[in-house]
Amino acid sequence: MTESKRRQGASLDIEAASKHFGAKMALAGVHLHVEPGTFLVLLGPSGSGKTTLLRCLAGIERLTDGTVSIDGQAVAGPGLHLPPDRRKLAMVFQDYALWPHMTALKNVLFPLRQLKVPGHEARSRAVAMLERVGLGQLTERYPNELSGGEQQRVALARALVGEVGLVLFDEPLSNLDADMREQLRLAISTLARESGATSVYITHDQSEAFSLADKVGVLRDGRLVQLGTPEELYLKPASAFVARFTGICAESAVQVVSEPRPTADGQVVDVRLPGSGAVVTATLPRPIPASAGARLFVRPSAVRVTAPGEGHFGAEVHDVAFAGRGYEHALSAEGDILLTRVFCEQRWARRGNVGIHLSPEGCLVLPAGPDGTGAPDGPGLPAGHTSDLVDLTAVPTP
Length: 398
Known about the structure:
By secondary structure, the protein is of the alpha+beta class. It has 2 domains: 3-230, P-loop containing nucleotide triphosphate hydrolases (Rossmann fold, 3-Layer(aba) Sandwich), CATH 3.40.50; 247-394, no CATH class. 22% of the residues lie in helices and 34% in strands. It has helices at 3-6, 50-58, 104-114, 119-132, 148-161, 178-195, 206-212, 230-235, 240-245, and strands spanning 12-21, 24-34, 39-43, 65-70, 73-77, 80-81, 89-92, 166-170, 198-203, 215-220, 223-228, 250-256, 261-263, 266-272, 279-283, 293-298, 303-306, 313-322, 327-333, 337-344, 353-358, 363-368. A hairpin with a 2-residue loop joins strand 10 (215-220) and strand 11 (223-228). Helix 3 packs parallel to helix 5 (148-161), helix 4 crosses helix 5 and helix 5 packs parallel to helix 6. It is globular, with a radius of gyration of 24 Å. The termini are far apart.
């Protein structure tokens, strides 16, 4: 990879971007700066505005207000709307969007011909890119002769072959089976970074976002509610919504019973769970106003299964499933409360008693309130997605 190709990524600047569809507000004043070469993932539930923002970046939709600049060139703003073919970008669609009458090779050649790359060079680059995505032996097949994963690899090759500065990904893995998703995720991550292009990728899948991104932007109701590295979002979520959407297995109102104590990575406090009276140590990502209550959010990684009588509280093993390198357990505390997705290397017997220990690193204390920074505040997860919440207030004292 030459030094020039490593540096070809475009910067992206979005200022006060708003989009209305009649009376419906899809984007509400989004501000965002993306450095060249960054892989940015926009994460959010259905209706959060991520697809609308991507389409506005591509030029498929026109902004109602605000501006978009790509590599310093304004492409959208008051009285300005450059069409997609003048924005020096490429896009990988959810449904592949290949030309059905063209072979895989001709699909990948298409953007090079639009760029007027000489024929021999264009063919050489197209063949090389198809080989990079593992389709060197399928260049003469038509889209209907390819599997879904193979079609998406052609679409990826087509997007990257033109060496554009910005590549947009519209949930490209959502139509694929689990094994193919993982293979193509790795191909997207590797090839997009090797190309040097800036990438903007949208998804509602937290694990997909974290595995791909340099930066993750979380959207809710058309607003960008947090932007940071995967580690920052996981360890220091800005709100209850971000905590829930990036993966929790339990939450509860709690009482803070100690002053914050400094650690190498921030601060911790002791909190008491209502009802059980159990006291656990938890991470304090940000100060809690004196006027606000506190709420505890538990990551699956914070839960450790111990022998009965040990840990913070007891539970019964409701179910267990083999997960390849270990076992995932559903644990039932008194009151038919389930704690799911609890991973252990060993298998605990169904209907057996265990103890549950919560580690401070995966227990987060955030302000409680009706504004989305604490107490439950209405639907926030996409259809079919569960946060596997457990009300710890009903967990018995050991």
